[in-house]
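Quarterly update from the structural biology core.
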Amino acid sequence: MYRFLSVTILFSLFVLSCGPGSTKKEEEKKDSVAGVIPSTIDENNELSEVITRFVRAYASRDNDKVNRLVHPDLGFTIIYRPGASDTFVRIDSINFAKAMPEYYPYPNIQNDYVLVFEKLPEFDCGTEKWSKLGFFCDTTSHPNQLSNIAAFEKEFDESIFSEEQLDNLERNEAQSYRIIVTTKDPLIFHVQRYKGGWYVTALDRAYAGCDA
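Predicted structure, tokenized:
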């Protein structure tokens, strides 16, 4: 009988620990994700416009046009690979004359693809080929590169990121989409819904780089 009571108590504690308190964050995250999915033609057009404007501005290496698509509250994050693993740095704006990192100049690109909304391509470092070619945005999933990098770096230095910073990264990613253009030097970036508009928030200069 005592054993039965012990098991019952443990089970009750488990149920309580998995109850409303522990699922609150998940529910909030789902709500925030549902709020950024384009549901009308106008919203989809707004998203498409920001994505294509950034690609055109990047291809023409126009600092002003690129930076108009960056919100000062969000900044602009560069993901890069200085060694075996990826890291990132936040900057206020992009300057094509001063690359970040300095040893990796921004490439000249030419995009002839038309934007399509479907599953993103993957790059195979063995064959050095993409699973498909084109200009893609996937609105059925959200990027997690920044939060994964931060979580990995925090394993080696707990002071490098606070829990609040990690939560902010995940919250921002839940309102973001990842875009890939499979040009010779690929263009990979993130856009985020913020205060009623779409903004470019990250440039991934690490993915599809297989040197390390």
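The helical segments are 2-17, 20-34, 41-59, 63-67, 145-156, 163-173.
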